[in-house]
Model the fold of this input.
Amino acid sequence: MLVAVNNRNSTQPLEVYRFLRQHGVQFIQFIPIVEREADPEAKALGIPLALPPSLNRAQHSTTVTSWSVEPQQYGEFLMRIFDEWIRNDVGKVFVMNFEWTLAAWAHVRPAVCYLAPRCGRNLILECNGDVFSCDHFMYPAYRLGNILEDGLAYLVDSQQQLAFGAAKETALPAYCRQCDVLFACRGGCPKHRFLKSPDGEPGLNYLCAAFKDFLHHVEPGMKRTLEFIRSGIPAQKIMETTSSIRS
Done:
């Protein structure tokens, strides 16, 4: 189940998680809702929300909508649920956010684009055949072509799309490149990278603080779980040892 985390429900992490668990939901993905107020470019196109950011320059608008989740609250939301999950539900409830984090510690290839070093392989196809770089970037500047005119393979491997995917990595601020948890967050989704780093570089993810808080918080549990798996011990055994893990 995809669960949108917004400014309202982010303040009730355990209520949300326990509701899902009590109703038999076993597979959960928590998606942060982040939208910016319309900038001049969006207003010129008649679009009510800001266009995706350009990663290598400062943006017109960094003001998020009232329903967007706050970074600190999103981090707290994930941490509170993680603490509940690792004590009671490992092997029973599968939270994709935690599965992907464990994969990062195991150096396994990310299962989702926004946690990969580079993106650009998840294109979107409109009903008229138009192909765009990503479902978060369905705007004129990111239209690659039309499958009625160009082959899909050509569009996927076009120079425009390859450059789009590479920018996720090449445009990372130095602040990110020096971060100890970059291996797990990879700068996050380019759509959310509209802030400046503490030293003034553009391209910092709006949810950076949330990622750092969450990843540092779960590190002991992730390392212990990985030790169990590599030793042939069922991961569920982690629930018996959580009292000795910093949480």
Notes: The chain has a mean pLDDT of 93. The chain has nine helices and eight strands. The longest strand covers residues 27-32.
